[in-house]
Design a protein that fits this description.
Elements: H1 17-39, E1 49-51, H2 57-63, E2 70-75, H3 80-96, E3 101-106, H4 111-116, E4 124-129, E5 132-138, H5 143-161, H6 184-194, H7 198-211, H8 216-231, H9 236-245, H10 250-262, H11 266-279, H12 282-299, H13 304-317
Parallel strand pairs: 1-3, 2-3
Antiparallel strand pairs: 2-4, 4-5
Helix pairs in contact: 6-7, 6-8, 7-8, 8-10, 8-12, 9-10, 10-11, 10-12, 11-12, 11-13
Length: 318
């Protein structure tokens, strides 16, 4: 039986359906506790922009992320681009009115967090949703690009985790509308995947998509279930030898890329197929290209490794 919660990310994977389901359950429990506390007068609406350090990171970021996406701005006083980006993020946090919370972390005073997130340079922007981290972008990006990234983040938080935001400080904001109950067919698909019934899960996800073609969670689940079905029974050593011995054999490279991805070697899987596209032509090239696009669906369109691989693919094709 293949595991469902494959490692797909260097920090914490938002693309694993099982992890999303477990995090969603924890988030729902945390929201229920918060609602009870608020009813007892124990909880107050949150601020939209907060300064965070290592001592309060768990409370202010990890725990808070079960109710609202937390966007982290890694910055420093000496950083010129940070001074361009931070005001944009702060203004957007107010404009989005509780759809996300901005946590500002001074890297000079919080080296441990800087290292744990694997930050390569600042400004760097990450998000935490239901306790899971996601790299968003690095550098002083244009405001329109920042808006697009935030919109994608909010969509991911709602569709995969049922997290829709919080009320803002001062009572001006409103609690987000209650989330609709989970589609029972989608729940059945998740259960089939958990049980190792890959054929049943694939059919169930396809049933969901036939009624709702835009369901992100079903698309992700289907892509992962199909990937797991493809690698079942493969002899890893044999597959890798065949790929090494036959670099122009598209099907050999596809099988090896699938194994790379299941093993968490995302860049290797993408690079292998980009190279295959480069060295082939006609139907072989198209098969490699289409399969690479399918693997993008497994990891998630917003993953920076997918963005980089799309760029590499475009350079090969054009």
């Amino acid at each position: 039986m293949q595991p469902r919660n494959m490692s797909m990310s260097g920090v914490v994977d938002l693309a694993a359906v099982k992890a999303a389901g477990e995090a969603k359950q924890k988030a729902e429990e945390a929201r229920a506790r918060a609602a009870r506390q608020q009813g007892e007068g124990q909880a107050a609406p949150v601020s939209l922009v907060i300064d965070v350090d290592e001592a309060d990171f768990e409370r202010e970021v990890l725990q808070r992320s079960t109710q609202v996406p937390v966007v982290i701005d890694f910055w420093a006083e000496w950083c010129g681009p940070c001074k361009q980006l931070s005001p944009v993020l702060e203004r957007l946090a107010q404009e989005y009115a509780g759809r996300f919370v901005l946590a500002k972390i001074d890297v000079d005073r919080n080296q441990m967090l800087f290292q744990q997130f694997g930050v390569q340079g600042i400004p760097a922007v990450f998000a935490v949703v239901a306790g899971q981290a996601l790299p968003l972008f690095q550098g002083a990006a244009p405001e329109q690009q920042v808006r697009e990234v935030l919109d994608q983040l909010i969509q991911v938080a709602e569709q995969r985790f049922g997290i829709t935001g919080v009320s803002v400080e001062g009572g001006e904001g409103e609690q987000a509308a209650p989330r609709a109950p989970e589609d029972p067919v989608l729940a059945a698909a998740h259960s089939a995947l958990d049980a190792g019934d890959l054929a049943g899960a694939i059919q169930a996800y396809r049933n969901v998509l036939s009624d709702n073609p835009g369901n992100t969670e079903a698309k992700l689940g289907l892509a992962q279930a199909e990937l797991l079905q493809r690698v079942q029974g493969l002899d890893a050593a044999r597959v890798r030898k065949e790929a090494a011995d036959n670099p122009a054999d598209v099907q050999a490279q596809i099988r090896a890329a699938d194994l790379d991805l299941v093993g968490g070697h995302v860049e290797d899987a993408f690079g292998r197929l980009v190279d295959t596209v480069k060295r082939t032509a006609g139907e072989d090239r198209d098969a490699a290209r289409v399969h690479l696009l399918e693997l993008f669906e497994v990891v998630g369109a917003d993953d920076p490794r997918v963005v980089a691989a799309r760029g590499a693919l475009a350079r090969v094709l054009f």
